[in-house]
Amino acid sequence: MRLLGKFFNFLSKIRFTAKAVKKYWKDGGYTKVSIAQIQYGGVLKGKSVLVTGGSSGIGLAIAKKCLSEGATVVITGRNRKKLLMASEELNSPMLKTVVWDVGDISVLENKLTEASALLGDKIDILINNAGILISEPFLAVTEEVWDKVYSTNSKGLFFITQALSRSWIKNQLGGKIINISSTGGFLGASCPYRMTKWDVVGLTKGLGMKLSPYGILINSIAPGRTATNMLGLNASENAYDCYSPLKRIGLPEEIAELAVFLMSDAANYIVGQTIICDGGYSLKV
Protein backbone atom coordinates (compact mmCIF):
# COMPACT_ATOMS: atom_id res chain seq x y z
CA MET A 1 0.00 0.00 0.00
CA ARG A 2 2.87 2.26 0.91
CA LEU A 3 4.60 1.43 -2.37
CA LEU A 4 1.40 2.18 -4.26
CA GLY A 5 1.21 5.57 -2.58
CA LYS A 6 4.75 6.39 -3.64
CA PHE A 7 3.92 5.35 -7.18
CA PHE A 8 0.92 7.69 -7.40
CA ASN A 9 2.98 10.48 -5.84
CA PHE A 10 5.61 9.91 -8.56
CA LEU A 11 2.93 10.09 -11.29
CA SER A 12 1.64 13.33 -9.79
CA LYS A 13 5.11 14.84 -9.95
CA ILE A 14 5.48 13.77 -13.58
CA ARG A 15 2.17 15.42 -14.47
CA PHE A 16 3.20 18.60 -12.67
CA THR A 17 6.54 18.64 -14.47
CA ALA A 18 4.84 18.01 -17.82
CA LYS A 19 2.48 20.94 -17.24
CA ALA A 20 5.40 23.18 -16.31
CA VAL A 21 7.33 22.19 -19.43
CA LYS A 22 4.26 22.71 -21.61
CA LYS A 23 3.77 26.14 -20.06
CA TYR A 24 7.21 27.31 -21.10
CA TRP A 25 7.71 25.18 -24.21
CA LYS A 26 5.25 25.55 -27.05
CA ASP A 27 5.17 24.64 -30.72
CA GLY A 28 8.53 22.94 -30.39
CA GLY A 29 10.64 25.70 -28.87
CA TYR A 30 11.32 28.36 -26.28
CA THR A 31 12.17 32.03 -26.82
CA LYS A 32 12.57 34.83 -24.31
CA VAL A 33 12.39 38.36 -25.69
CA SER A 34 14.42 41.32 -24.50
CA ILE A 35 14.00 44.58 -26.39
CA ALA A 36 15.46 48.07 -26.12
CA GLN A 37 13.25 51.14 -25.96
CA ILE A 38 14.58 54.47 -27.14
CA GLN A 39 14.17 57.41 -24.78
CA TYR A 40 13.84 60.46 -27.02
CA GLY A 41 13.63 62.95 -24.18
CA GLY A 42 10.16 64.35 -24.77
CA VAL A 43 9.97 64.26 -28.56
CA LEU A 44 6.15 64.55 -28.38
CA LYS A 45 6.04 67.25 -25.70
CA GLY A 46 3.10 69.57 -26.30
CA LYS A 47 1.47 67.17 -28.77
CA SER A 48 -2.10 65.90 -28.42
CA VAL A 49 -2.64 62.31 -29.52
CA LEU A 50 -5.87 60.40 -30.12
CA VAL A 51 -5.49 56.60 -30.04
CA THR A 52 -8.55 54.59 -31.06
CA GLY A 53 -8.78 51.12 -29.54
CA GLY A 54 -6.30 52.12 -26.87
CA SER A 55 -7.46 50.10 -23.88
CA SER A 56 -5.23 47.09 -24.55
CA GLY A 57 -2.58 45.56 -26.79
CA ILE A 58 -0.86 47.69 -29.40
CA GLY A 59 -3.04 50.75 -28.75
CA LEU A 60 -2.25 50.70 -25.03
CA ALA A 61 1.49 50.31 -25.73
CA ILE A 62 1.41 53.26 -28.13
CA ALA A 63 -0.46 55.41 -25.57
CA LYS A 64 2.10 54.51 -22.90
CA LYS A 65 5.01 55.42 -25.17
CA CYS A 66 3.38 58.72 -26.16
CA LEU A 67 2.90 59.63 -22.51
CA SER A 68 6.54 58.86 -21.77
CA GLU A 69 7.52 61.28 -24.54
CA GLY A 70 5.46 64.14 -23.13
CA ALA A 71 2.21 63.93 -25.11
CA THR A 72 -1.32 64.36 -23.84
CA VAL A 73 -3.28 61.27 -24.89
CA VAL A 74 -6.90 60.24 -25.30
CA ILE A 75 -7.58 56.53 -25.70
CA THR A 76 -10.92 55.23 -26.91
CA GLY A 77 -12.69 51.91 -26.59
CA ARG A 78 -16.15 50.40 -26.47
CA ASN A 79 -15.76 48.96 -22.98
CA ARG A 80 -15.80 51.49 -20.12
CA LYS A 81 -14.39 48.98 -17.63
CA LYS A 82 -11.40 48.17 -19.87
CA LEU A 83 -10.72 51.87 -20.36
CA LEU A 84 -10.76 52.38 -16.59
CA MET A 85 -8.33 49.50 -16.11
CA ALA A 86 -6.04 50.94 -18.79
CA SER A 87 -6.18 54.35 -17.15
CA GLU A 88 -5.26 52.86 -13.77
CA GLU A 89 -2.39 50.92 -15.36
CA LEU A 90 -0.88 53.94 -17.11
CA ASN A 91 -1.60 56.18 -14.11
CA SER A 92 -0.93 59.53 -15.78
CA PRO A 93 -2.70 62.89 -15.47
CA MET A 94 -1.92 63.37 -19.16
CA LEU A 95 -4.18 60.44 -20.11
CA LYS A 96 -7.90 60.82 -20.85
CA THR A 97 -10.48 58.28 -21.98
CA VAL A 98 -13.55 58.33 -24.22
CA VAL A 99 -16.05 55.47 -24.53
CA TRP A 100 -16.45 55.25 -28.29
CA ASP A 101 -17.47 52.59 -30.76
CA VAL A 102 -15.71 53.93 -33.86
CA GLY A 103 -17.92 51.78 -36.09
CA ASP A 104 -20.95 53.88 -35.09
CA ILE A 105 -20.68 56.80 -37.52
CA SER A 106 -23.76 58.51 -36.04
CA VAL A 107 -21.77 59.51 -32.92
CA LEU A 108 -18.52 60.37 -34.71
CA GLU A 109 -18.79 64.17 -34.63
CA ASN A 110 -19.83 64.26 -30.97
CA LYS A 111 -17.11 61.85 -29.88
CA LEU A 112 -14.45 63.65 -31.90
CA THR A 113 -15.49 66.93 -30.29
CA GLU A 114 -15.36 65.28 -26.85
CA ALA A 115 -11.87 63.89 -27.49
CA SER A 116 -10.66 67.23 -28.84
CA ALA A 117 -11.95 69.07 -25.76
CA LEU A 118 -10.07 66.68 -23.48
CA LEU A 119 -6.93 67.39 -25.49
CA GLY A 120 -7.20 71.15 -25.16
CA ASP A 121 -9.34 71.68 -28.26
CA LYS A 122 -6.74 70.27 -30.61
CA ILE A 123 -5.66 66.93 -32.00
CA ASP A 124 -2.18 66.83 -33.50
CA ILE A 125 -1.89 63.12 -34.15
CA LEU A 126 -4.43 60.38 -34.86
CA ILE A 127 -3.61 56.71 -34.34
CA ASN A 128 -6.19 54.59 -36.14
CA ASN A 129 -5.71 51.42 -34.13
CA ALA A 130 -9.25 50.20 -33.34
CA GLY A 131 -9.98 46.87 -34.97
CA ILE A 132 -11.73 43.56 -34.51
CA LEU A 133 -10.73 40.11 -35.68
CA ILE A 134 -13.29 37.46 -36.55
CA SER A 135 -11.61 34.41 -38.06
CA GLU A 136 -14.24 32.85 -40.27
CA PRO A 137 -13.24 30.78 -43.32
CA PHE A 138 -14.41 32.10 -46.69
CA LEU A 139 -17.35 29.70 -47.07
CA ALA A 140 -18.61 30.44 -43.56
CA VAL A 141 -18.56 34.26 -43.71
CA THR A 142 -22.01 35.80 -43.25
CA GLU A 143 -23.20 39.30 -44.04
CA GLU A 144 -23.39 39.98 -40.30
CA VAL A 145 -19.73 39.04 -39.81
CA TRP A 146 -18.72 41.09 -42.85
CA ASP A 147 -20.56 44.19 -41.63
CA LYS A 148 -19.23 43.89 -38.08
CA VAL A 149 -15.60 43.68 -39.18
CA TYR A 150 -15.86 46.33 -41.87
CA SER A 151 -17.74 48.82 -39.68
CA THR A 152 -14.77 49.14 -37.34
CA ASN A 153 -11.69 48.19 -39.36
CA SER A 154 -12.50 50.07 -42.56
CA LYS A 155 -15.55 52.33 -42.35
CA GLY A 156 -14.79 53.71 -38.91
CA LEU A 157 -11.17 54.38 -39.79
CA PHE A 158 -12.13 56.10 -43.05
CA PHE A 159 -14.69 58.49 -41.57
CA ILE A 160 -12.62 59.44 -38.50
CA THR A 161 -9.75 60.26 -40.84
CA GLN A 162 -12.08 62.23 -43.10
CA ALA A 163 -13.62 64.25 -40.25
CA LEU A 164 -10.30 65.15 -38.65
CA SER A 165 -8.71 65.98 -42.01
CA ARG A 166 -11.59 68.33 -42.83
CA SER A 167 -11.02 70.12 -39.53
CA TRP A 168 -7.28 70.42 -40.07
CA ILE A 169 -7.69 71.72 -43.62
CA LYS A 170 -10.45 74.17 -42.63
CA ASN A 171 -8.26 75.60 -39.86
CA GLN A 172 -5.08 75.45 -41.95
CA LEU A 173 -3.44 73.03 -39.55
CA GLY A 174 -1.14 70.14 -40.30
CA GLY A 175 -1.24 66.83 -38.53
CA LYS A 176 -0.13 63.22 -38.57
CA ILE A 177 -2.11 60.03 -38.99
CA ILE A 178 -0.75 56.56 -38.28
CA ASN A 179 -2.95 53.67 -39.41
CA ILE A 180 -2.49 50.21 -37.97
CA SER A 181 -2.80 47.65 -40.74
CA SER A 182 -1.44 44.07 -40.62
CA THR A 183 0.73 41.70 -42.58
CA GLY A 184 -2.68 40.41 -43.69
CA GLY A 185 -2.78 43.50 -45.90
CA PHE A 186 0.05 42.05 -47.97
CA LEU A 187 -1.09 38.44 -48.19
CA GLY A 188 -3.88 36.72 -50.04
CA ALA A 189 -7.24 37.67 -48.56
CA SER A 190 -10.34 35.48 -48.28
CA CYS A 191 -11.88 36.86 -45.09
CA PRO A 192 -13.17 40.31 -44.15
CA TYR A 193 -10.37 40.97 -41.63
CA ARG A 194 -7.56 40.65 -44.16
CA MET A 195 -9.57 42.54 -46.75
CA THR A 196 -9.95 45.49 -44.38
CA LYS A 197 -6.20 45.49 -43.87
CA TRP A 198 -5.71 45.70 -47.64
CA ASP A 199 -8.08 48.68 -47.47
CA VAL A 200 -5.84 50.38 -44.91
CA VAL A 201 -2.70 49.93 -47.02
CA GLY A 202 -4.43 51.35 -50.11
CA LEU A 203 -6.01 54.22 -48.22
CA THR A 204 -2.67 55.13 -46.67
CA LYS A 205 -1.11 55.39 -50.14
CA GLY A 206 -4.01 57.34 -51.60
CA LEU A 207 -4.29 59.81 -48.74
CA GLY A 208 -0.53 60.17 -48.57
CA MET A 209 -0.75 61.73 -52.03
CA LYS A 210 -3.94 63.69 -51.41
CA LEU A 211 -3.33 65.10 -47.93
CA SER A 212 0.40 65.84 -47.85
CA PRO A 213 0.01 69.16 -49.76
CA TYR A 214 -2.06 70.32 -46.75
CA GLY A 215 0.66 69.35 -44.29
CA ILE A 216 -1.18 66.19 -43.24
CA LEU A 217 1.24 63.27 -43.23
CA ILE A 218 -0.19 59.76 -43.18
CA ASN A 219 1.62 56.45 -42.83
CA SER A 220 0.80 52.96 -41.66
CA ILE A 221 2.31 50.09 -39.69
CA ALA A 222 1.65 46.44 -40.51
CA PRO A 223 2.34 44.34 -37.40
CA GLY A 224 2.83 40.62 -37.70
CA ARG A 225 1.87 38.05 -35.06
CA THR A 226 1.99 40.19 -31.93
CA ALA A 227 1.38 39.35 -28.28
CA THR A 228 -2.16 40.70 -27.89
CA ASN A 229 -5.44 39.42 -26.49
CA MET A 230 -6.94 39.73 -29.97
CA LEU A 231 -4.65 36.97 -31.22
CA GLY A 232 -4.59 35.13 -27.92
CA LEU A 233 -0.79 35.33 -27.83
CA ASN A 234 1.29 35.89 -24.70
CA ALA A 235 5.04 36.51 -24.62
CA SER A 236 5.53 36.90 -20.89
CA GLU A 237 6.70 33.31 -20.39
CA ASN A 238 7.50 32.03 -23.87
CA ALA A 239 7.54 34.12 -27.05
CA TYR A 240 8.35 31.21 -29.37
CA ASP A 241 6.48 31.17 -32.67
CA CYS A 242 7.12 28.55 -35.32
CA TYR A 243 5.64 30.74 -38.08
CA SER A 244 8.26 33.49 -37.96
CA PRO A 245 11.85 33.26 -39.25
CA LEU A 246 12.86 34.83 -35.93
CA LYS A 247 10.96 32.04 -34.17
CA ARG A 248 9.13 34.45 -31.92
CA ILE A 249 6.08 36.70 -31.75
CA GLY A 250 6.36 40.46 -31.62
CA LEU A 251 5.66 42.69 -28.64
CA PRO A 252 3.21 45.61 -28.65
CA GLU A 253 6.08 47.76 -27.36
CA GLU A 254 8.00 47.12 -30.58
CA ILE A 255 5.12 48.48 -32.62
CA ALA A 256 4.90 51.46 -30.27
CA GLU A 257 8.57 52.30 -30.86
CA LEU A 258 7.96 52.46 -34.59
CA ALA A 259 4.75 54.46 -34.14
CA VAL A 260 6.42 57.15 -32.04
CA PHE A 261 9.22 57.51 -34.58
CA LEU A 262 6.62 58.06 -37.33
CA MET A 263 4.83 60.60 -35.13
CA SER A 264 8.01 62.56 -34.54
CA ASP A 265 9.52 65.25 -36.77
CA ALA A 266 12.35 62.80 -37.54
CA ALA A 267 9.95 61.05 -39.95
CA ASN A 268 8.58 64.07 -41.82
CA TYR A 269 9.87 62.84 -45.18
CA ILE A 270 8.03 59.53 -44.96
CA VAL A 271 4.65 59.77 -46.68
CA GLY A 272 2.02 57.19 -47.60
CA GLN A 273 4.11 54.19 -46.56
CA THR A 274 3.14 51.04 -44.73
CA ILE A 275 6.05 49.68 -42.73
CA ILE A 276 5.92 45.96 -42.04
CA CYS A 277 7.08 44.87 -38.58
CA ASP A 278 6.57 41.10 -38.50
CA GLY A 279 9.85 39.33 -37.78
CA GLY A 280 10.07 38.31 -41.44
CA TYR A 281 6.77 36.40 -41.45
CA SER A 282 5.54 37.92 -44.73
CA LEU A 283 8.83 37.05 -46.47
CA LYS A 284 8.25 33.32 -46.25
CA VAL A 285 4.57 33.17 -47.14
Helix and strand element order? HEHEHEHEHEHEHEH
The residue fraction in helices comes out at: 40-55%
CATH topology: Rossmann fold
Shape: globular
Give the distance, in angstroms, between the N- and C-terminal Cα atoms.
58 Å
Please identify, by name, the CATH architecture. 3-Layer(aba) Sandwich
Q: For this structure, what is the CATH class?
A: Alpha Beta
Largest sheet: 7 strands, parallel
Report the portion of residues in β strands.
Answer: 5-15%
- Roughly what is the average pLDDT, rounded to an integer? 90
Instruction: State the total count of DSSP E strands.
Output: 7
Any idea how many domains?
A: 1
Strand order of the largest sheet: 3-2-1-4-5-6-7
What integer value in Å does the Rg equal?
21 Å
List the total number of helices: 8
Would you identify the CATH H-level superfamily? NAD(P)-binding Rossmann-like Domain
Please describe what this structure looks like:
The chain is of the alpha/beta class. It has a single domain (43-284), classed as Rossmann fold, CATH 3.40.50.720. The chain is 42% helix and 13% strand. It has helices at 2-24, 57-68, 80-90, 108-118, 143-170, 192-211, 252-263, 281-284; strands at residues 48-51, 72-77, 95-99, 125-128, 175-180, 216-223, 274-277. The chain has a 7-stranded parallel sheet with strand order 3-2-1-4-5-6-7, with helices on both faces. Strand 2, helix 3 (80-90) and strand 3 form a beta-alpha-beta unit. Helix 2 (57-68) crosses helix 7 (252-263). The protein starts with a helix and ends with a helix. 41% of the residues are buried. Mean pLDDT is 90; it is low at 16-21.
